[in-house]
Amino acid sequence: MPDVNANSTVYMYSLQARGLAHANCQHRGVLPRQLLLEVLDSLQGIIFPLSEPKSRKLLQSLVAAERLDPDVLRWEFSAIRRRGEETVAYVYLADRLSELHSEL
After folding, report:
1. Geometric angle at alpha carbon 62, from 52 and 64, rounded to 5°
2. Model-level pTM greater than 0.70?
3. 17, 80 contact by CB (below 8 A)
4. Could you point out which of 11, 26, 31, 98 has its C-alpha 20 to 30 Å from the C-alpha of 4?
5. Is residue 68 part of a domain?
């Protein structure tokens, strides 16, 4: 199992994406699924839209230069969402994203 370090949020969503049960991972400090979905959706849909070549290239450079978990480029939200999770209601990150948006 990879070392959980400063990139733990991305690593933790990778655990969920790989199908590890919440009950089995809870003792390891894995975050709630809703938070993980929000992080993944905001990374790939808002901050670095993977459908845009410039965003994908920037994210690739961050993976290489800053040692960001490379799974952020492999796991797409559509591949891990369940029925009823077609859209993400932002519960955990709504205030933070709103603050970031107001600074733009």
Report:
1. 115
2. no
3. yes
4. 98
5. yes
2 in any annotated domain: no
3-state secondary structure 28-75: HCCCCHHHHHHHHHHHHHHHCCCCCHHHHHHHHHHHHHHCCCCHHHHC
* Domain encompassing residue 78: 8-103
The number of beta carbons lying within 10 Å of the beta carbon of residue 87 is 9
Alpha-carbon Rg for the chain, nearest whole angstrom, is: 14
How far is residue 15 CA from its own chain's centroid? 11
* Short-list 72, 68, 70, 93, CA closest to 6: 68
Task: Give the total number of structural domains in the chain.
Answer: 1
Residue 102 DSSP label? H
List per-residue pLDDT tens for the chain, 104 residues long: 334 444 444 444 554 555 545 555 566 677 888 888 888 888 888 888 888 999 989 999 999 998 888 888 877 777 778 888 888 889 899 998 899 889 88
